[in-house]
Structures are given as C-alpha cells and as structure tokens.
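Q: Joint fold for the lines below.
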Amino acid sequence: MDVDNAPNRLRSLPSWLLGQAAIEGRRVVGDVLAGEGLHRSQYALMASLEEFGPLSQTALSERSGLDRSDVVRWVDGLAARGLVQRTRDPRDRRRNTISITREGRRRLQELDAQLDRAQHDLLGTLSDEERKLLILLLGRLLGLQRQPE
Amino acid sequence: MDVDNAPNRLRSLPSWLLGQAAIEGRRVVGDVLAGEGLHRSQYALMASLEEFGPLSQTALSERSGLDRSDVVRWVDGLAARGLVQRTRDPRDRRRNTISITREGRRRLQELDAQLDRAQHDLLGTLSDEERKLLILLLGRLLGLQRQPE
DNA sequence: CATATCTCAGTAGGACTGAGATTG
DNA sequence: CCAATCTCAGTCGTACTGAGATAT
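A: Joint structure:
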C-alpha cells in the first residue's frame, strides 16, 4: 500500500502508523528468514531456548509468545532439521524438554547478523539517535521494565 | 502475551517492538469500533470517503488500503446501514460511486472522539512530547512526506 | 477484441480453541 | 478422581487470488 494515499484520519492515528510500520517489519524479517528456510516463529523459539536454556513446551510457549499448539508444529520442523532437540523429561514424563543444539546456536548467530541488517533497512532514514529514541519509546509504550540491553 | 517474558533477542528487535505495539493498537481500536458494531476496515472506508469525496470502489481500495474484494464486502454492510451510498456512475456504468451519507458523517465524528480516547490509552505512559515524537518517527520510518496535520 | 470494474468463491497463512491421550 | 502437559483437528478473522459478468 502507498501510505501517502491514505486519508489523514488514518495517517494521524498512532495505531495506524504502528500497524503500517509493523507490516514493513514483518516483511523484512520474514524475507530474511524465508531465505534460510525458516519462519519468524522458529526464530522466536530458537531465541528463547538460547537465552533461557532447555524449556518445556508450555514454558516455551510463554517465552516465545506462540500458542502452545503452534509450538508443537514449529518445533517439529526445527527438530527434523537438527536445530533443536526434543526429549522426554525423565522426572516428569508428561513433559518434553526442548533444547537448542550446537548447530542451532550456529544458525542463530548467522540469522542475528542478517536480521541486524534487515532492521537497519527497516529504520532506513532514521539517524542512530532517532533509532534509539524510537526503540525507547516503543519499550515505554509496551511497559517494558528494562531496556533491552 | 507478557512482553517482559520474551528473550532479549526479540525485545531488542525494532520490528518485534513494532509488532507488539501494533497488536495493542489493533486491539484498542477494534474494541471501540466493535462497540459501535463496526469494523476497522469500515472506519478506513468512511474516513477515505469523508476526506476525498465520492470514489469508485477501485479508488476506495487504493485510498483505504483494503483489497478490492474486501471493499465489496465492507461497503455492503455500510450501505445496508445507511452510512454510505452505492450508486452506478452514469458516465461509466462499470463503476459504482460510493459516497458517505449525512448519517455516515455523523457517526464518523462520534467515532473520532472515541478513537481519540483509545489512542490516548494506547500511548498510556508517554508524555505529550513523547507522543508527538513517536508519531514523527513512525512517519519518517514510513516515508510519509508531510506530517499528518 | 482488449481493457476496466465489480463481484464472488475460494485459497493461504496465522492465531486460537476444544478435546483426547498420557502422566503425575 | 483431578490436574498438567502435549498433541491434533478444526475454527476464526484477515489478506489475497482467480475467474466470471458487465460495461467501455
């Protein structure tokens, strides 16, 4: 869509601006990951596992923001490709323990670099200071306690 | 989702912050409009018609950012409730001319007031200056030429 | 005949729900 | 028996595609 064509009632709504910007963001990230045969949800899963260590699928759902049911599906794909490992928790055999593999960590690092470039593209015309400011304001809007490092 | 639980890899991605903020925005706006029996898309349509005057459905699609096919459906509902009018263009009978009715304008004004409050809620903890700044930065990110009035 | 517009049915991807199976 | 966990099938709202009908 050409945002310039939109009526002022929309263009002056913060929620609309956020929505349009989010569409762009989703697109650039989706493109990068699709190029690696992965999905945004799978990046979220791998990132959660790398940061918090092995997790049950329920915990993984809470950390990644994905639905419990989607965790099942996306983990299937990651496990099939050896990026994560799914094992029964011996202490509570209802649970799976999902952990990221060495290969998963490696891929994650590659993705980080690519995503970094994508974010840079997304923020396009903004100066470094403006980027920091935008991130700060969005964090405040979301009520994030601490700034992401 | 509780954004505080998310891994730093996500929390530091501008695209992720935008996505989460957009979800919030969509929710507050959707709630207001649902209370009036309307849909976000229908607000976009009415706003386009009020600002640009009567439009063909194709033009309405371009202005509102909706797919041509969705314009058909949402206009159906608006027309049935007397908020817009659909007439054949006598000069090119392939075209419909959609125009907003007096009643439509009235409802739009009511909605504006409610949406304004919703936006205020959305931006919650931000000061007036910060709100302006956020809007400015998002506009820049989207490459909007002029600031929305 | 080629093109433009509207309409409708259907598809695709994502978010979510409900219920069954297994274990505690 | 109740609760937690995982899994699967299916639903829901949204965005989009393809093709037919009508008109230029």
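Q: Anything notable?
A: The longest helix of chain A spans residues 14-35. Helices of chain A lie at 8-11, 14-35, 40-52, 57-64, 68-80, 102-122, 128-141.
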